Amino acid sequence: MARCAVFLLALLCSIAMAAEADLPLRIFGMDSRPVSFIEDGKPTGLVVELAQEVQRRLGRSDPIEIVPWIRALSIAKNDRRVLLLSIVPTPERSKTMVYAGPLFLVKVAVFARADRAEALRAAGHDLKAWRTGARRGSIFAHVAQREGFSLTDETNSSDLGARMLMQGRFDLWVEGEETAGVALEHMGYRRSDVVLLRTLSTEDVFFAFTSDTPQELVRAWNDALRDMKRDGTFLRIHRKWLPAQQLPTDMRQPK
Q: In what residue span(s) does the Solute-binding protein family 3/N-terminal domain sit (predicted)?
C-alpha cells in the first residue's frame, strides 16, 4: 500500500511538472538590427529566427515581442516565465537567469567619429577619460564600466547611440561590431562616418530564461539548439544575418 502511494505521488508530480513546462513563455527581443527587430510589422532577425525554429521543433508557438532593451530587462526582473532572446551572462544576471546557447559572438568595441579618430588615438591610455556612451543595461555599458571608461551617457537603443555620437553628445561609443554599422545606416549616416578604435572583449550571447522557468523547458531549448547545430539548420540561419567569425564558441574551428 505504501509503495503504491509513493508511485502515485511520483506520477502526480511528474504530471504537474509536465503541465508547468507547457505553460506559455513571455518572449522578448531587443530592438537591435540584425539581432532582433521589427520589419513589416513582424519580429525578425537572427535570434528571432533561431527562437522560432526551436519553438517549431518543440511544438510551441509563444509570441515574440520586440521592445526597447531597458524595458525587456525590467519585465524579466519583475515577471515570471520570461525569455530574453540575447543576453551575455554576467555574475549579476546569473543570480536570476538560466541560459540556453550559445547563439553568436558579440565583439564589444569602441567607436569614434572619423573626423576625430586621429586625435582620440593620440590620447593612448587617456582614451578612457573621454566622454563615453553605451546602451543602457547592455553588455556594452557593462564592459565600458569594467574597463574604466568614463560612461557619461546611457542610451535606450543603438540607433540613439549612433545619433548622439555623430552629434557630438559624447566622444566614444561602446557598441557591438555587428550592430554599430546597421544603427548608423538606420539613422541616415554611413558606416565610414565612424572608426573602430579598439575591441574591448568578445562575448558569447545566449537565450536567457528567468530562473522560475521549469528546468525541463530550458533543457528542451538547449537540446533543440544542439540538434540544430548538428543538422546544419543553425549555421544556415546564422549565415543569413552574421559573418562566420561571429559563430558561437562551440561552433568555431580551433586555430
A: 27-245
